[in-house]
Amino acid sequence: MSEPKHYIFNSKTLSYEVKRRSASSRVFKTLAMFAVSLGLAFLYFWIYSSVLGLEPPKTVLLKKQSAQWEARAKVLNRQLDEYNDALTTLQMRDDDIYRSLFGMNEIPSEVRNAGFGGVNRYAHFDDIDPDGVLKKTAVRIDVLMKKTYVQSKSFDEVAQLSRRAGEMASCIPAIPPMNPDKKKYRLSSSFGYRRDPFTGRSKRHTGVDFAMKPGIPIYSTGDGVVESVKFELFGYGNQVVVDHGFGYKTRYAHLKSVGVGEGMKVKRGECIGLSGNSGRSSGPHLHYEVLYKGSHVNPANYFDLSITPEEYGTMVQDIADASERITLHPSHQKKRR
């Protein structure tokens, strides 16, 4: 399209002639129009923002979208708080009830609450999330997922062990270590601090002592495996330690003689030796200990001395009969190990 022409009337020739404009004038006019337009734009922006106190439409849209995302992030974090509280309750119940009930060690807090070290896996949030809201939310989700996985594995272990609940019931040391005929024994020393009969000083007594004549049968208080049989001249004398599993062990000390060997399986109510006065002892008695997860606990919490001698004797006889039947069976001629 050709450039528009401007005409001017020439009074001498009485005709219209084309008016020629210089290039510089055209450039000046263009720049002048641009300057005026720019000035009007700035004037409009100043009136819109400073005088009227309004924001540009794009800014308003971006702020609206940002507010929506922040609201969603807050809702998500409130939900994460609820999930974390629920998971914490499960963890406490798991450690204090389920795992404790089955003699399992608690899961260390450093395992449950382990973070994500090493490479910065959230670096991509730095450019798009200056406030760090999305980054913190992503970290919380990952940590919560890891805690959930750890808790899930723990429940799997508890479930597997619960299937052996019947076995556990027979393994926990739950009967007196001798027939509780009050005519044949006396509870001479209880669990806790006492005056040492040799030094006279206060010392923690890690078990209970039953004063009785030598030669009285001593029985395993739960199913288990004989962990050790040894003699200590200035200690427990002839002693037997039975590992019952599930975190429980029992010790029978100052025996006159031992009727089991290391590695032998024993049943609750099975005779393991005879009471005596061996080792460092102030008189004939049985020293009986219960250990749970490596710590001494009060044996009195694990037996009932009110059981009648007849009931106890029946239980012992049933165990002996069952053991004899197993021994006489052709497939059990070898020594039980």
Describe, in plain words, how this protein is organized in 3D.
By secondary structure, the chain is α+β, with helices and mostly antiparallel strands. It folds into 3 domains: 6-51; 63-163; 176-332, Distorted Sandwich (Glucose Permease (Domain IIA)). It has 7 helices and 14 strands. The protein has helices at residues 23-51, 57-101, 109-112, 125-128, 133-162, 165-171, 309-328, and strands spanning 6-10, 15-19, 186-189, 192-195, 202-205, 208-211, 217-219, 224-232, 237-245, 248-258, 265-266, 271-275, 285-292, 295-297. The strands form 3 sheets. Strands 3, 6, 7, 8, 9, 10, 11, 12, 13 and 14 form a 10-stranded antiparallel β-sheet that branches. The chain has a two-stranded antiparallel ribbon with strand order 1-2. Strands 4-5 form a two-stranded antiparallel sheet. Helix 2 (57-101) packs parallel to helix 5. The protein is rod-shaped.
Q: Care to give the gist of this entry?
A:
With 337 residues, the chain is an alpha+beta fold. The chain has helices spanning 23-51, 57-101, 109-112, 125-128, 133-162, 165-171, 309-328; strands spanning 6-10, 15-19, 186-189, 192-195, 202-205, 208-211, 217-219, 224-232, 237-245, 248-258, 265-266, 271-275, 285-292, 295-297. The protein folds into three domains: 6-51; 63-163; 176-332, Glucose Permease (Domain IIA), CATH 2.70.70.10.
